[in-house]
Structures are given as structure tokens and as C-alpha cells.
From TrEMBL:
SMART domains: AAA. It comes from Falsiruegeria mediterranea M17. Its EC number is 3.6.3.20. It comes from the Bacteria. It is an enzyme of class 3 (hydrolase). This is sn-glycerol-3-phosphate import ATP-binding protein UgpC. Belongs to the ABC transporter superfamily. InterPro entries: AAA+_ATPase, ABC_transporter-like_ATP-bd, ABC_transporter-like_CS, ABC_transpr_MalK/UgpC-like, Mo/tungstate-bd_C_term_dom, NA-bd_OB-fold, P-loop_NTPase, Transp-assoc_OB_typ2. The gene is ugpC_5. GO terms for cellular component: ATP-binding cassette (ABC) transporter complex, substrate-binding subunit-containing. Gene3D superfamilies: 2.40.50.100, Nucleic acid-binding proteins, P-loop containing nucleotide triphosphate hydrolases. Residues 330-372 are annotated as: Disordered. One of its GO terms (molecular function) is ATP hydrolysis activity. Keywords: ATP-binding, Cell membrane, Hydrolase, Membrane, Nucleotide-binding, Translocase, Transport.
Length: 372
């Protein structure tokens, strides 16, 4: 039996926005992220699960019980909000224990749960501080501790890291995953950050315009995107799309290729001749962004640094076994790669495009003009 199940959930306003016919089943103890661009319905879906909004159609089941018409207080869940939702006049301990006091949990049990939650979230010694005396990361940990003491089996999180800087996001992300595992929580986590979704989740629900675009493991979404939307949303940088005729294919298909699978070659030795429009040094590797009339988002990686130059022309090899083919009309995946992509970074180095290996440009090819 699924722990959380949605069946045909729909909630719109004047026929617009919201979510449309959303269905999925989540097993107990799973960590699921709802991912997508702004306005795709992520937060609306979370509020529907929480009981803060009511669906116009469909059913919501938690632990086998139909809770569609039940208020939030009767759904046996906890929530962690983007804004922390802390009482500024209460101490850390009182904020953490607020829900337990409302439910009139015994004092000894409150102390037991508080001590455990503060230890799990690294807040020992801060019990008497007010929220204004805490950093952003500490405030979010207070919100996590409050969810922990509730000891509810289902925890909903609405972009809990969006107000934190990059370093804190990584730190608190680890706290969230560790907390979920330690408590055996089933988590539904809303985010627009694919890095969070891919690193935290067992299951990712990718939404687009109120509907589920694709649902599966992070590996599924990365390696086998179901549509061109998923291909261009997942990955950093995302999958490049090349019109079929650009690769001597039919015009009714679009080829998708991950930058890790793209190999750079001297002029005349590849599938396409492209122009370098950006070079981004990332430490252990360099991202090379390329432009070609038949391609969108074309990029490749080079190990270490490179002596390639902006507006230089290079040939690009797009191996057939690493191509995904999408229907040009529907955008849906028609053919998966014959094998998993193997990184071409070492090949780029071996072909004279990596660090300390001169790239011999074919000077008989006229360089492209710099874009305005």
C-alpha cells in the first residue's frame, strides 16, 4: 500500500493556474521533490496535500485513509516553510515546543523530544535565544527541529532553503536528508532548484504548467528525459537539442545530447562545425558553450583549463550511441541512447583540446565573425 497517493487532483482558479489531473503514489519513507519553474503549480500541490487548499476534483490518501476533505490538523503531518514561520518573541526552545504545548503533550515528553531534536539539528546551547539572535541557517534548523519533535510520519517542505546563501544551503541540505533518514520520515519537498531535487530525492516529480511532465528517480530524469522540456530543465548545463537535418537525420526528429558526451574535434573531423561563444573555467574542468544554427544549448567539457579562444571554430562530434531522439512535433522521447553516455572530457584532452596540449586550428577555415 502506498503511504501517500494522489488521484486525479485538480485545483484551478477561473480555469487557469493551479494543478491539473495530478496523480502519483509515494511509498513510506521516500523522499520526493516536486520540481519545476515558477508558476508551474508546485506550491499549490503541496498546499493541497497539506489541507490548506481543497481540490476541485480528485482524492488524496495518506496511510490508506481518504483525507481529501479533512483539515490540515487531521492529516498527521508537519510542515517546514520557506519563511521559517518562527514566533519572534519566543525562544528557540519555545518555538520548537509550541505545537506540543498546543496538543498538551506531557512536560517530560516535551523535554525528551526537545533534547533529541536539538541534538539532531545542532542547536544545543541555543535554547534560550530569540530568532533575531540567530543566523538564517540556525533559524531554518529551528524550523526543522519543530518538525522533528512533532514526530509525524509525513513532512512537507516548501522551498525551505531559498532564503539561505549557497554555503548554508549545502549545509542545511545535508541536515534535512540526515533528519529524514533518522526519523524515517516520508518527505514531500518543493523546490525550483534542480541541484536540491537531484541530490536529496529518491523520486522527483517534474511539473510544467500544472501537470506532471515526468516522474522518476533523479537518474531517470537525467539519463532518460521523457520530453524536450525535461531535457532542457534537468542538468547543469542541460541537454543540448539539435535539429534532425543538422545531423543528417529526418526533420521530424530532434536529437538530444548531454555536454559530457560531446567531443570537440579539429575542423573536418566532426558532425558539426560550431563557434565557441563562451568559456567557463570550473577548476577541474572547463565548460565550452557553442553556437550553431541547428542547435540550442550546445556545450562540451574540457578537462582542466584550455587554450581555446572565444569565437574560434571547432568541429563537434555527437556520437550516435549517446543521442536521444525526440519527436519534433510532440517533444516526446522516441529513442533512448544505445548505451549510457561516457564522458568525453578525456577524449577532448587526447585530441589536443585539453590542458597543455595545443589545439591545431585548421587555418584554411575562415573564422566566424564576432557576434554583435
Amino acid at each position: 500500500m502506498s503511504f501517500l497517493e494522489l488521484k486525479g487532483i485538480t485545483r484551478e482558479w477561473n480555469g487557469q493556474g493551479g494543478v491539473k489531473n495530478v496523480s502519483f503514489a509515494l511509498p513510506r519513507g521516500a523522499f520526493m521533490s516536486i520540481l519545476g519553474p515558477s508558476g508551474c503549480g508546485k506550491s499549490t500541490l503541496l498546499r493541497l496535500i497539506a489541507g490548506l487548499e481543497q481540490p476541485q476534483a480528485g482524492q488524496i490518501h495518506i496511510e490508506g485513509r481518504d483525507v481529501t476533505a479533512r483539515p490540515a490538523a487531521q492529516r498527521n503531518l508537519s510542515m517546514v516553510f520557506q519563511s521559517y514561520a518562527l514566533f519572534p518573541h519566543l525562544s528557540v526552545a519555545d518555538n520548537v515546543l509550541f505545537g506540543l504545548k498546543v496538543r498538551r503533550i506531557g512536560r517530560s515528553e516535551q523535554v525528551r523530544r526537545l533534547d533529541k531534536a536539538l541534538e539532531m539539528t545542532g542547536l544545543q546551547g541555543l535554547e534560550h535565544r530569540k530568532p533575531a539572535q540567530l543566523s538564517g541557517g540556525q533559524r531554518q534548523r529551528v524550523a526543522l527541529a519543530r518538525a522533528a519533535v512533532a514526530e509525524k510520519p509525513l513532512c512537507l517542505m516548501d522551498e525551505p532553503l531559498s532564503n539561505l546563501d549557497a554555503k548554508l544551503r549545502h549545509s542545511v541540505r545535508r541536515d534535512i536528508r540526515a533528519l529524514a533518514r533518522a526519523l524515517g520520515l516520508t518527505v514531500v519537498y518543493v523546490t525550483h532548484d534542480q541541484g536540491e531535487a537531484m541530490s536529496l530525492s529518491d523520486i522527483v516529480v517534474l511539473m510544467n504548467a500544472g501537470r506532471i511532465e515526468q516522474i522518476g528517480s533523479p537518474q531517470d530524469l537525467f539519463q532518460r528525459p521523457a520530453t524536450t522540456f525535461a531535457a532542457q530543465f534537468i542538468g547543469e548545463p542541460p541537454m543540448a537539442l539539435v535539429d534532425g537535418p543538422g545531423l543528417a537525420l529526418n526533420d521530424d526528429v530532434i536529437a538530444g545530447i548531454r555536454p559530457e558526451a560531446v567531443a570537440l574535434r579539429p575542423i573536418g573531423a566532426g558532425d558539426l562545425t560550431a563557434t565557441i561563444k563562451d568559456i567557463e573555467f570550473l577548476g577541474s574542468k572547463t565548460r565550452i558553450a557553442l553556437t550553431h544554427p541547428a542547435a540550442h544549448g550546445l556545450a562540451a567539457f574540457v578537462a582542466g583549463s584550455t587554450n581555446l579562444a572565444l569565437w574560434q571554430m571547432v568541429d563537434v562530434s555527437i556520437p550516435e550511441n549517446d543521442r536521444l531522439l525526440f519527436n519534433a512535433q510532440t517533444g516526446k522521447l522516441e529513442k533512448e541512447p544505445q548505451q549510457n553516455s561516457e564522458t568525453r572530457i578525456r577524449q577532448n584532452t587526447a585530441s589536443g583540446i585539453g590542458p597543455k596540449a595545443p589545439f591545431h586550428l585548421n587555418l584554411s577555415t575562415k573564422p566566424a565573425q564576432k557576434e554583435p
